[in-house]
Amino acid sequence: MSQPQVLPDTPDASSYRDVWTFTEYVEGELFQTSFEALAAAKKIASLTGMKVGTVVIGYKIPDEVPQALIRRGADYVVIVDDVELERYNPLTYASALVQVAQERKPWAFVFVADDIGRDVAPRVAYRLKTGLATDCIDYEMGEIYQGVVGQTFKNVLAQVRPDFASRIAKIFTPRHRPQISSMRPGYFKPLPEDPSRKGEIFRVKWSAKEEELNKFSVLEVKRLPEEEGVELLSADFVVGLGLGIVRRTRGDPDPKYVLDMARKINELLAQRLKVKTAIGASRALVWAEVRELKDFITPGRQIGQTGKTISPKVYVAVGISGAIQHKVGIMRSRKIVAINTDPEAPIKDMASYMINEDLYEALPKLYESLKRRLE
Which of 72, 79, 242, 333 has CB 3.0 to 4.6 Å from 282, enough for a Cys bridge? Predict the structure, then answer.
């Protein structure tokens, strides 16, 4: 019988402590999803008895930033402040994160699975020679047997993420530290702000490497226009538009009309109920690049596994069949209303209410009904 393969050991895992997050602070803006990451880290810390730390990178970071993070759950904040870190650059940010991780040795490191997190987390994991579990929706403690070394590892972080279909996968990094993951926005509710919380603030000097500074230069910075409506992640009521709005069994489709109806419904609810509303789209509709919707249905509005995960009180799916990738993004919605002519559309499995009617007829009826009830 062949002997288990012996792999080079990681440094002593017992020397690694605390659960870290990466706080996204870009051009003077503190991303709200960073508070969700702190909530995720707080859960891990409660399972391990460790402290929660967070790293902030930037230039001339005001004192209010670390204080805001402490009030939301951080036990301490590590600040790397340098003029070369004023604007986001994946190479310099990764370099700074790797430096502080090597110096202070966090046990786990949580990033947000957004544009920045997906860009920088793999670079950090690679340089630290550890693993990366992406798009996590929960965290647990567990044990795993690793056959390649013939050993059972206990008290390892189980990084839970959605897999294909309805399966859930648990990713372990038993032999390397830190255990790095990215968490999907929308799955961890930020902790309430506690003005009485106290914490420590550490300021670290970044040892910039010349080759990292000269890899490329920023020639111009263009800020994309803000998308219409409230952010999908914070909305109470969301209308999701699917490819069904450009297909119609009778009559010509008019996707602009559907968009206008969705806007009218949202405006009505925002005015009468004072709730936050937003409009999103399925991946199929985003990728279709419908000419009449090109200035509104953008990748930033995509809901699903490769888009945003939302958690509204009510989600109305209009012309969306319900592929598993879309279901992953709406599974935290409290109530789901599906408008679809196909009574067997996959979304029926998740829908609280199913309206089997032509959406071009159902939406005006829904608007008029809401208008009467809210008068």
Answer: 242
